[in-house]
Amino acid sequence: MTMGTHKYLRLFASLLTLYWAGSGMAQETSRDQVGLVVPAFIADGPVGESVAYLIKLSVQGELSSEDPVTKKRGYGRGISYFVPAAMRTHSHEEAARLARLNGLQGTVWGYATELPDGVAIQSFLSLNSTYEDFRVTRNELWQWEGRGATLVLGPPQQNVGFRSETLTNDLVKAFGSPSDLDFCPIDGGACVQFDDYQVARAFGRTDTGAIVRRGGVDYFLDFPDSGLARSEVIDYAGIFIAYARGNLNQVIQFADRYLERHGPSDAAIDVHLYRAAARARLGQVEAARGDIDAALELNPVSRRSLRYGIMVELAAVGKPNERSESYFQMLARTYGLSSEFDRRYASLDR
């Protein structure tokens, strides 16, 4: 594929996102939309599109919530958007740029390799760091004000790599190209295909299928149990979107599941920190402290864990205390005052 073709596809994706965001077929309109772009994974053959499309549906399928009054399910500010082309440059910088082109906060991308008995995938999540998008509220920026200063912490990491995973060969045998998938109306009628890929919403998901909505009609999409629905990257992506749109109880729920499924890893440190922040912001201080301890057990000198530990204490007591000072001394001794957060904490009135 030529450079010009890639440029066209990215531009097309950007324009199409704007169309979908304002369309009744796509989602409820919201000024605080949070979402991730999922381009085709880098691969030889259609398996890259298949993997990315299932990730899109799987992430979407867990972001709906029920209105406490109407009892209707909706998505509000959560979206995952599929782009049917792999990135031209394989880097976190290019992934963040693709997200900016589409007006979203990050990109899930990676590699897919067909094996004799399955498909190996290596996944990444790249978040925008300083991109000022159109949102009124940026919930992923945790802010504390007091003692003559304002401290802000963003997501634990901007660029995350996940452990490689192997999926079953059923994914390749039964899936093919997303444009070949049959969407069958739940209320009956002939199955249809959508060659533009962008089914509006996945309102439910199981290991073998998803309920999706387009044009006010609910369809069932059947896909093989490849193991992808329980993938680490999907569970982590759901945590980020829930955190960025301020659904703190959902963050805790998703983090519990992630830690039960996937165990210790560098990404698990982030999950403990997301859960610590959610708990602290909900007033669950002791539980938040437990997550900071768990993160530091995985890496005792993790900068992000020490900073989140400081923030938990500031949120809890409104000023530096013995715990926050011990975290800061470790941070300064190991790394110096290497960020604006560190320098602002050092300047706080004691």
Structure commentary:
Strands 1, 4, 5, 6, 9 and 10 form a six-stranded mixed sheet that branches. Residues 1-29 have low confidence and may be disordered. This protein is α+β, with helices and mostly antiparallel strands and 350 residues long. It has two domains: 3-137 and 161-227, no CATH class; 247-346, Alpha Horseshoe (Serine Threonine Protein Phosphatase 5, Tetratricopeptide repeat), CATH 1.25.40.10. Helix content is 41%, strand content 21%. It is elongated.
Key structural traits:
350 residues, Serine Threonine Protein Phosphatase 5, Tetratricopeptide repeat, six-stranded mixed β-sheet, four-stranded antiparallel β-sheet, 11 helices, 14 strands, 41% helix, 21% strand, elongated
Summarize this, please?
Keywords: Signal. By secondary structure, the protein is of the alpha+beta class.
Topology:
Elements: H1 3-21, E1 34-39, H2 47-60, E2 65-66, E3 73-74, E4 78-83, H3 92-101, E5 106-115, E6 118-127, E7 142-146, E8 149-153, E9 159-161, E10 165-167, H4 170-175, E11 183-185, E12 201-206, E13 209-214, E14 217-222, H5 232-244, H6 248-262, H7 266-281, H8 285-298, H9 303-317, H10 322-335, H11 340-346
Parallel strand pairs: 1-4, 1-5
Antiparallel strand pairs: 2-3, 5-6, 6-9, 6-10, 7-8, 11-14, 12-13, 13-14
Helix pairs in contact: 2-5, 5-6, 5-7, 6-7, 7-8, 7-9, 8-9, 9-10
| Global outline | elongated
Unreliable segments of 5+ consecutive residues: 1-29
**Which structural category fits the helices and strands?**
alpha+beta
Strand content: 15-25%
Q: Considering DSSP H and I runs of 4 or more, what fraction of the residues is helical?
A: 40-55%
Question: What's the alpha carbon Rg, rounded to whole Å?
Answer: 21 Å
Number of domains: 2
The biggest beta sheet reads:
6 strands, mixed
Element-by-element helix/strand order: HEHEEEHEEEEEEHEEEEHHHHHHH
Beginning-to-end CA distance, first to last residue:
60 Å
Mean pLDDT across the residues is: 82
Task: Enumerate how many helices there are, as a single number.
Answer: 11
Number of strands: 14
Signal peptide: 1-26
Protein name: Tetratricopeptide repeat protein
Keywords: Signal
